[in-house]
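Hello,

Following up on my earlier ticket. Below are the two sequence lines again, exactly as submitted.
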Amino acid sequence: MKMSLLLLRDEVTKAEAFVFKNWIMTRRNVFTLFEILFWPVVGFLSVGLLAEFAAVKQEMRAFILVGVISMGTIQVCQLDVAYVLLYDVWSKAVKHGFIAPVGMRHLFVGSWIVGMARGGAVFSMLMGASYLIFNFDFMVPGVGPLCLFLFGLFLSAATVGILVCILVLIFGNRAEVAAWSLVSLMLLVCGIYYPVTVLPKAVIVLAELIPLTYFLEYFRHFYGFEPIFSYVLVKGYSLAFSYLLLEVFLMKVALRRAKRRGLLLRLSE
Amino acid sequence: MNYAIEVRGLWKTFVSGWPRRRRKEALKGVDLFVPEGAFWGILGPNGAGKTTLLSILSNLLTPEEGEVRVLGMDIRTHAMELCKRINLSSGHANFLWSMTVRENLVYYAMLYGLSGRRRQQRVEDLLYLFDLRDSAKVRFDELSTGMKQKLSLAKAFLNEPDLLLLDEPTVGLDPDVARRVRELIQNQHRERETTILMTTHNMREAETLCEQIAFIKDGTIMACGRPQDLKRNLRLGDTILITFHGTLPVPTIEHMPGVYSVQRTGSSCRILVDDHRERLLQILDLFSSKSVFIDDLRIQESDLEDVFIAFAR
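Thanks for your patience. The regenerated structure is below:
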């Protein structure tokens, strides 16, 4: 009993280390304000105002605002997961982290917690703003569905953030651009501003492989948009968890490759 | 004898470039056995494979071939257990730039599983030990090179490692700070009996700190032993410079035990001996018996730098 408590404390402390690192680095980074306030707010306002100007119907506005707010939330949350490695890469301190007795689970759980806090802050802020400025109520589906939707967004963000880390461990710091571009690719495919039915068939198949597509479908159905896919929540969560498991495996493979090729040393020089 | 490090037939090749692959063999069948509690140095020219060896021992690199056992465990199968018991400090250290000295130590202490009061106490102890208390709230990117190096060493002692790997720990430091850093390392080695393997370019540092030296060149260990043994094996010896008047019995001196060579130029001579402490008295006796009068006598001891140059050639 005492042994398992000690082990649990060890696990918590190691995950807490990454919460601590991301939190301190976030607090001291002037671009954090831009990430949390500027880009999501600019995106939200410009799209919202465009909808006003185009005099789209109330339900269409709901469709677009759900998309744009989800986008801002995912972008902020996934950045934190990616930052867990990128901060070390930018500081050229990669080797110190990897010689310590920590596992991938500590790395990602810790950074994801900070990502959820920051993403949650963005979501709450934009939710309030959409109510005040565009008279759009995010609470219509109720607290339960809202939490399920938000957690789905956070899981999607984690899959993107971990993918960025994998790419960095394979291609070095050239891959850091993925931290900003992967979400934009999702914007095209997952139906952020338009239903996936407008996409070419081949791209719809791609959209079906991305969990965010289903989470958006799930939340929008509370605003009168019938989902084009069945069992959206089940599919969304199943895909997200499957990708997380796959990515943890791929991360281990990428780390082994980086150790074989000396990338960890090059990233520390 | 128990070994902290056992390396047998270690090979490491780096492959780079695309589409044309370039291969560089960094280690070519290295064997190394470092006893527990020892302080060993690895010397060698740039690109010899020193950092590669240390990186393999600290599990940052995987070798292609060879057996590596650290603290009695295979590094491939017991990586996580070993991570808890070893640590690394390198010259030109980099840490998270916007964290303060204390925050960096707290972060790495957490990575080693230290929590609560134990972590707080350990961090405060190390801040005190490495004279970092006044800089505790200074961000890493605002620290001087010396302070960064001290932070790197403090971080390396966070988990009280059984094996400490030091990669050029005093590089780029001014002599005063370098001396203090050396003292700190030596004190830790004495007090905790930590096994230390250190790479350095500083010969005096190696000679002062290390009990044994391994010379590595082109990925191969060329020689290994105590500094004085290495000098003896290379027949570098010491030089006795004597200015005299009288008739010098050169052939007699040449046949004395421990004398490598004698060179006479006018009224001065240069005698190369294995160890001046053992040979000088006999030479002086010979001078006296042959009525050769000494006007001046100087001794030049060969040091590790000469050994380094001899091996690096």
